[in-house]
Amino acid sequence: MRHIVAIHQKTARIHRQICSSLDTSPRHCRSVRVTWRVFLAGGASTHTHALRGACCGLHPQDWLPGPGPFVFHDPSSPCILGTHHEKGAQTFWSVVNRLPLSSNAVLCWKFCHVFHKLLRDGHPNVLKDSLRYKNELSDMSRMWGHLSEGYGQLCSTYLTLLRTKMEYHTKNPRFPGNLQMSDRQLDEAGESDVNNFFQLTVEMFDYLECELNLFQTVFNSLDMSRSVSVTTAGQCRLAPLIQVILDCSHLYDYTVKLLFKLHSCLPADTLQGHRDRFMEQFTKLKDLFYRSSNLQYFKRLIQIPQLPENPPNFLRASALSEHISPVVVIPAEASSPDSEPVSEKDDLMDMDASQQNSFDSKFDDIFGSSSSSDPFNFNSQNGVNKDEKDHLIDQLYKEISGLKAQLENMKTESQRAVLQLKGRVSELEAELAEQQHLRQQAADESEFLRAELDELKKKREDTEKAQRSLTEIERKAQANEQRYSRLKEKYSELVQNHADLLRKNAEVTKQVSVARQAQVDLEREKKELEDSFQRISDQAQRKTQEQTEVLESLKQELATSKQELQIVQGSLETSAQSEAKWTAQIAELEKERGSLVNAVARQEEQLSALQEQLEYTQLKLSSTQESICQLAKDQRKILLAESRRAAEQVVQEALRQFEEPTLFSCAGSADHLLCKVRSVSSCIEQLEQCWSQYLACPEDISGLLHAVTLLAHLTSDTIVHGSTTCLRAPPEPADSLTEACKQYGRETLIYLGFLEEEGILEKADSTAVRSCLTRITAIGEELLPRGLDIKQEELGDLVDKELAATSAAIETATARIEEMLSKSRAGDTGVKLEVNERILGSCTSLMQAIQVLIVASKELQREIVESGRGTASPKEFYAKNSRWTEGLISASKAVGWGATVMVDAADLVVQGRGKFEELMVCSREIAASTAQLVAASKVKADKDSPNLAQLQQASRGVNQATAAVVASTVSGKLQIEDTDNMDFSSMTLTQIKRQEMDSQVRVLELENELQKERQKLGELRKKHYELAGVAEGWEEGTEASPPTLQEAVTEKE
């Protein structure tokens, strides 16, 4: 074989001489030398080391198995140059197929590195020539994947990356091997189609994922606790990562730009998966770049860029301007891993030169010398004529033909040897197939065992989860038991307090009963004493009267006696005996008179004793009465205080009902609330009367207690009905009614507080309570459903007036919108002007559609009146169908009112002081009102009427215009919000975490408020349709039923 090499080298020297004789230009000589070098590299030898060196420009020592790095200046540069000169990689693969890549992991790893560089920097035809070997690379990747130690997993991952790279560049031929493209070329690669950009982004994600897997696999195979980058084994594994870093930097840059482009064309929700996958790869790539930049091996070879602290915000279009493309810098002075290989390469070049000289000497021994006297040396024959040169060339061609014949003989012998080797290869392949079969069986058994192991692990995890769930359940059960124990203790305490209160009440009742019984006994004793006193008094009076009568009789007798005495004295002179007789009679009368006086004295002493006994009895009776009165007074105070506290508890419990969530399932009516308010007013009047009676007569407390209890319960009912009525009322009246009910409860508690002490009892004033009731009454009367207070004779004129007023309101709204648009164009610029023009333009379209609807409605009304009135006048027709007419009038008013409100909302939005949601709600309300107007018109219209069809067409136009308003408003809102995105560049991690927590709290609050507002909105709509049915005269069976929420939405759509 060395002879063959010598022959080729000698032939090359002959051709160099021919080159020098024919064309002495250096450029031409270089071309010939390169051509023959490639030729020699393709068929010079079948020796493995010689083929390696000829193909890749590597010396045999570079491909020796071992964990060391590439000990050469740039091992792949000759290969890269060879592919450019050859315009392909056939020679490369012809040599690679003879290398033991399936048995030597280190050799396979170095092959992957060189092939990666060829794909990046070699000729574009390298990819085409390599596609036929893609399946072989896949099989080799699966084969090395079964080896979990050493370079097995590294080779498997690297081969997977190379195959992915080949597939990516095959699908996307616009991308060069080194992935260097401009932004314009990147746009051209997607062909301005969002679907192509979407698919291209997915393929880039897959490509970058393979790059990151190789990155991670290499780092996992290294012991990062030591300085592995300065060891030969570590450098051997880290060397290919330079190509990976170059690919990753470009892929990351292109991915960011494509995602921004996709977010400008597609909704954010559609690209949620892209953003999640980008965030995952961004975190990995940032960590791997950071770890690589800290390795000493890379610091001398490459400058690795650092990714930003935070990933790009694709939801903010302006963030693209903040994106900086990562640039990998390879210093010119750091083109080799080590400085030692340079001298080693010189030694190898010297060795090659010595081998070349030996080959030349052997060639001279066989074919003769090629010195200056040699006829093949054309450099010393410049003066020979043309015929001699031709003769010399012919002679050389003959020699070349002889050499080719010898070469063919050698090829025949080598083919025979190849056949023998192929037979041996077949035997070895059979053995290898058997070994692979055994390995496959072992792999299947390993997979089966691995599956069983995974199943056991899963069962163990399920058992652990069940154990954790059981522990959690036990903990919750224990907590529930503790909570139940506390509730039970609280309930026992409440029961005990209730029992104590009942016992105290029983004792108080018993004391009152005893006091009342004692009072009854005292009254009975008093009555008996009064009776006995009356009897004694009567007896003493009778005796006194008798004595008085005796005294009177005695006085009369004395007068008589005196008269007789005078008669006797007159007749003394006549008779002494009769004088003595009369004297004796006088003495007897005087004696009798003394005895009577003594009897009267004794009677007076008995009377004074009786009077003293009466006074003592009266004193005892008065003290007993005072104690009874004090006891009764205390009992009345206790009863009044307990009644007041019970009343306050009832009122406070009613006030707490405002916070109960179960109240949302209830609903009240305004008329019921007004009925309760009237009952409370009459109860307050009754309480004031009982209050006055109690102040006049404190003993009469029953009426006051009854009035206080009744007031507490009526107040509680009023507050509860007020709170339930708020659920069906509009927001502003509902808030006013809620505040009024709460204020009424507080004023009632203050009013009842005057019952606590007697000193302030007279100062009690119910003016504040009555004012709260008056306020509740006014709000309740506003919430009562009202119909149109219109005389039937005026309905006909009112329909035309309302339609005309609606048309005028629409025209006024259109003029205002045009005026606002003119002002916006004069004062606004940029995004704000664009948003305002789009919103106001859609509002103008909506006004025009409503105007068309009003005209169609007028024509249909005229047709209905003409077809349904008969001989009657239009006014009589409207008066006859008064309820239908009222519904039509209400719908017309709603349309005009909605247009006015929408224009006001649009004005505020244009000025920057309004909300986009108000504009969307107003447009939807207009659509609902027009749907109501259409429904009211359809009731009396003929279903085949062309005017009805025209009205329905106009209604659909209104719905489309409403949708346009909503769409433009939503688009404008998003566009405004995009310009107001938050800037996180100046925020720290703690601030971002704080704002994230605040945002989560705000989200929970808004979700809770949204749920409550939805419930409230449902109740409001329900009440609205109930009130609309009463106000607009919908009757079941004869008139149009009120449209439900689903019907309104369907009509709107």
UniProtKB/TrEMBL annotation:
Primary site of residence: cytoplasm
GO MF term list: actin filament binding; clathrin binding; phospholipid binding; protein homodimerization activity
Source organism, top-level taxon: Eukaryota
PROSITE patterns: ENTH, I_LWEQ
Statement: the UniProt record of this protein carries the keyword Cytoplasm: yes
Residues covered by the I/LWEQ domain: 787-1028
SMART domains, per database record: ENTH (SM00273), ILWEQ (SM00307)
GO cellular component, one term: clathrin-coated vesicle
Keywords from the named record: Acetylation, Actin-binding, Coiled coil, Cytoplasm, Cytoplasmic vesicle, Endocytosis, Membrane
Coiled-coil portions: 393-620, 994-1023
SUPFAM superfamilies (UniProt xref): ENTH/VHS domain, I/LWEQ domain
Limits of the ENTH domain: 39-176
Alphabetical list of Pfam families matching this protein: ANTH, HIP1_clath_bdg, I_LWEQ
Function in brief: Component of clathrin-coated pits and vesicles, that may link the endocytic machinery to the actin cytoskeleton. Binds 3-phosphoinositides (via ENTH domain). May act through the ENTH domain to promote cell survival by stabilizing receptor tyrosine kinases following ligand-induced endocytosis.
The protein's assembly and partners: Homodimer. Interacts with actin; homodimerization promotes actin binding. Interacts with CLTB. Interacts with HIP1. Interacts (via ENTH and I/LWEQ domains) with BCL2L10.
The protein's name in its UniProt record: Huntingtin-interacting protein 1-related protein
Gene: HIP1
